[in-house]
Design a protein that fits this description.
With 278 residues, the chain is of the alpha/beta class. Helix content is 50%, strand content 13%.
Length: 278
């Protein structure tokens, strides 16, 4: 099993590579949070590009180092854009991150997420209810037939999504990050719990969406597991630091972006985490 020293070494390498190369990780994402996603990607050292048309999605898939797809606020055109982009990513072997926001709500969302099954996302990031529902939709172990998603909020605990996360990671051959009070990251063979964060994360929109975009940035420079863990670690670190300087949600968001920008590779690698054998 991978040890903490090796994990820290790979996190440092991923962070330093991103800061040095400024890789582009394009996004087709939630219209509510486009600005925050792009700013977070820029803050950690990546380059952002946000599109929604089918031909532009294909261009991003081919031109970028990785792509982030978020199904948060769907437009009719996404029925063409999202499967087409995911297919190109799968066929070209490019890493991509899926955020199955509000899985279980509406027929188009369900149809699109069912289609993504064959394109095997490199990293899946969601809250516990979303991970449980996606595993259920894909007919995998640990999933639930009925979605417990309440809008974009989770009604399930992170620990309850452990088996679903493992099943999803084993199916895709990639990694899954379950966001919550304590975050869970798995590649299907090992679980890491990442600690930190802030209660203000629930008071701003786009914390989870922007994390997906940041994980995509790191996916250009690391394995799916390390990318998911690095993104989660820098978020937990930045949020912990930002909370100490913030007076409320508004100032927290500003401080959070600043702390994403200032976090060193060593600081991110040393953010507290725990390795658990499966």
């Amino acid at each position: 099993m991978i040890n903490s020293g090796e994990i820290k070494k790979q996190i440092i390498q991923a962070v330093e590579t991103v800061k040095r190369t400024k890789p582009m990780a394009g996004s087709i994402t939630n219209t509510v949070t486009i600005n925050f996603v792009a700013n977070a990607q820029l803050a950690v050292g990546g380059s952002a590009a946000m599109v929604y048309l089918p031909d532009e999605g294909e261009f991003l898939a081919k031109a970028g180092g990785a792509t982030y797809i978020n199904v948060g606020t769907l437009l009719p055109i996404y029925e063409q854009t999202l499967p087409h982009t995911a297919k190109v990513l799968h066929e070209t072997g490019k890493p991509w991150v899926l955020d199955p926001v509000a899985v279980g709500i509406g027929s188009l969302r369900t149809k699109l997420l069912e289609q993504f099954r064959e394109y095997k996302p490199t990293v899946i990031r969601g809250n516990a209810s979303e991970i449980l529902a996606l595993a259920g939709l894909w007919g995998l172990d640990g999933g639930t037939e009925k979605s417990n998603v309440r809008g974009v909020d989770s009604t399930d605990s992170v620990s309850s999504a452990k088996d679903a996360a493992i099943a999803l990671a084993r199916y895709t051959g990639g990694a899954v990050a379950v966001s919550g009070e304590t975050d869970l990251i798995t590649d299907g063979s090992v679980i890491v719990l990442s600690y930190g964060g802030s209660h203000f994360m629930e008071k701003i929109t786009g914390a989870g969406c922007s994390l997906g975009g940041v994980i995509a940035v790191y996916a250009t420079a690391a394995s799916p597991f390390i990318a998911a863990l690095t993104g989660t670690a820098v978020y937990n670190l930045a949020a912990t630091r930002a909370e100490k300087k913030a007076d409320g949600p508004g100032s927290f968001q500003v401080q959070f972006l600043d702390e994403l920008y200032k976090a060193s590779a060593e600081d991110i690698a040393n953010n507290p985490f725990e390795i658990i054998e499966i």
